[in-house]
């Protein structure tokens, strides 16, 4: 897998400890050549600044907000726009979300889905899919 697309609410916006662990994982993934994007059903506007900060801080390559791209998960168009934002086809991306409906839609579209419920569980699968080693 050459890319990872991650939901924000319910995944990247956890406790301070989880956010720090995600930062470590994202830094390692980018260092390993993995393209990273956020895909959120957020409406956009100033309230989305914490999501945009992930790109501003260099943790992800792209931020895709449904209110700005005109499509919401679980639509195929939302997945395709997010994948295109990191210059990859959807089939080359891992998709991480806390909604099983969104995971099913992504998998049906050819992506590899990781159903996020807890960082410790998800990181094992993500690290394996992306070929990452280390403590996150």
UniProtKB/TrEMBL annotation:
What are the coiled-coil residue ranges? none
* SUPFAM superfamilies, sorted: HAD-like
Q: Report the GO molecular function annotations.
A: hydrolase activity
Q: Which UniProt keywords apply?
A: Hydrolase
The answer to whether UniProt assigns keyword Hydrolase to this entry is yes
Say which domain of life the source belongs to: Bacteria
In Swiss-Prot or TrEMBL terms, this protein is called HAD family hydrolase
* Organism from which the protein derives: Corynebacterium lactis RW2-5
